[in-house]
């Protein structure tokens, strides 16, 4: 296999992608951290089982690091888990010279980044994303945080990792459903910024993609370009929220009501359907592209049925979105595939209509 290394800069953090990314981690550790500095690895139970042994094989020095392993899943992305992690930092004797390594998907990088950003008013952390979603989105850009009462990312800070190491080999153990979850964020990247990437994504069924590296690189390029224009999300970075305002409502609803909740990406795929409909109603998206997007999403994602009675609660959840202004949700919409516009105030009645139309689309 060819040895590749791609390097990006996202909001000031270096991001290394490729089969030699962990070599970069080795040299980062030897340049910046002595044996006396505490190194802590945070993983969830799955990434501990599947990814930690590979990491130790590649970077043997890390076998001495203090390990913190938490249960997996979005329901763990809470302040209660943070408290347990902070207690473990104290047990490990962590201080501002310590380094936290977040080994996992977006749940671990969001929660781990947040715990690191505020412990002793901030200690260094790096991300080693192990899910596709983490590799193309969650691990870069400095958004960290946790959910509150299942409301997404209500508590958090912007804090950038010292570096991000994307090693696609970790994907070998990622379940198909989780690969799909990352694929939804890649579709979103393409829809807001790059028609050619969209065409490439839909050219072959997701399930037959085995070499993800070039897709990851294209997706990171889009994210990097947008985040670097607006690191603190006061303008252009809002473009990355396409599908997320209503997607987060589905995710919160599912976390509250489903025994087996939606993955983040499944919820975002559903949010993309609704926000594509709103784009068609108010932002000039053609019916041809609307139907194309909905068809492509439904080809990949199971048609999740929501009871009509859930719609009141979904609308209510959108009232808590951080980006709302004067009581109105502010959405990112697309004018056509590859061209999005942020900060569009949408009437609550149209939000409700989009949830009803969603139930038609998935019939
Ligand atoms: N900060 C950001 O900019 C940003 C952007 C997008 C999403 N997010 C957040 O990311 C989270 C979703 O991330 P996610 O989809 O990675 O979820 P996740 O971290 O919960 O991982 C999904 C599942 O895959 C397992 N897993 C991860 N890597 C594995 C591997 N290599 N082998 C086997 N199992 C593995 C995990 O244990 C978990 O069960 C959400 O909380 C979302 O809000 C954050």
The distinct ligands, each listed once, are:
nicotinamide-adenine-dinucleotide
The CATH topology of the largest domain: Dehydroquinate synthase-like, alpha domain
| Number of β-strand runs | 11
Question: What is the strand arrangement across the widest sheet?
Answer: 4-3-5-6
User: Can you count the helices?
Assistant: 14
Which structural class do you get from the secondary structure elements? alpha/beta
How large is the share of residues in beta strands? 15-25%
CATH class of the largest domain: Mainly Alpha
Shape: globular
Distance between the ends = 44 Å
Question: What does this molecule look like?
Answer:
With 363 residues, the protein is an alpha/beta fold. The protein folds into 2 domains: 6-173, Rossmann fold; 176-361, Dehydroquinate synthase-like, alpha domain. It is 48% helix and 18% strand. It contains 14 helices and 11 strands. It has helices at 21-32, 45-50, 52-58, 79-92, 106-118, 132-138, 176-193, 195-203, 213-229, 244-257, 264-282, 287-300, 310-318, 348-361; strands spanning 6-10, 13-17, 39-44, 66-70, 99-104, 124-129, 143-148, 151-158, 164-166, 330-336, 339-345. Helix 7 runs antiparallel to helix 8 (195-203). The longest helix has 19 residues, at 264-282. The structure holds nicotinamide-adenine-dinucleotide (NAD). Nicotinamide-adenine-dinucleotide is lined by residues 44, 46-47, 50-51, 72-74, 77, 104-108, 110, 130-131, 133-134, 137-138, 141, 143, 152-153, 170, 173-174, 178, 181, 263-264.
């Amino acid at each position: 296999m060819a040895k590749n290394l791609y390097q990006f800069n996202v909001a000031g953090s270096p991001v290394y992608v490729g089969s030699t990314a962990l070599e970069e981690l080795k040299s980062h550790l030897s340049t910046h951290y002595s044996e006396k500095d505490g190194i802590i690895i945070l993983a969830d139970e799955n990434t501990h089982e599947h990814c930690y042994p590979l990491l130790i094989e590649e970077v043997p020095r890390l076998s001495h690091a203090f390990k913190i392993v938490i249960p997996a899943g979005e329901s763990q992305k809470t302040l209660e888990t943070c408290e347990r992690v902070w207690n473990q930092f104290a047990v490990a004797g962590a201080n501002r010279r310590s380094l936290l390594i977040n080994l996992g998907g977006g749940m671990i990088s969001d929660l781990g980044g947040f715990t690191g950003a505020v412990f002793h008013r901030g200690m260094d952390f790096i991300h080693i994303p192990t899910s596709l979603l983490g590799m193309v989105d969650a691990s870069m850009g400095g958004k960290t945080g946790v959910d509150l009462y299942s409301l997404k990312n209500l508590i958090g800070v912007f804090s950038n990792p010292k570096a991000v190491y994307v090693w696609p080999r970790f994907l070998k153990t990622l379940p198909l459903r989780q690969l799909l979850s990352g694929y939804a964020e890649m579709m979103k990247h393409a829809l807001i910024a790059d028609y050619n990437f969209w065409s490439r994504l839909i050219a072959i069924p997701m399930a037959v993609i085995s070499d993800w590296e070039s897709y990851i690189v294209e997706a990171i390029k889009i994210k990097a370009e947008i985040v670097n224009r607006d690191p603190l999300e006061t303008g252009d970075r809002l473009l990355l929220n396409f599908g997320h305002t209503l997607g987060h409502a589905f995710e919160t609803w599912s976390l509250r009501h489903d025994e087996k909740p939606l993955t983040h990406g499944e919820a975002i795929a559903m949010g993309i359907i609704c926000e594509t409909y709103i784009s068609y109603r108010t932002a000039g998206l053609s019916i041809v592209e609307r139907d194309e997007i909905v068809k492509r999403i439904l080809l990949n994602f199971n048609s999740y049925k929501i009871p009509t009675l859930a719609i009141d609660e979904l609308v209510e959840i959108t009232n808590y979105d951080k980006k709302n202004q004067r009581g109105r949700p502010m959405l990112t919409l697309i004018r056509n595939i590859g061209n999005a516009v942020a900060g569009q105030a949408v009437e609550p009645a149209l939000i409700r209509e989009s949830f009803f139309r969603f139930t038609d689309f998935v019939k």
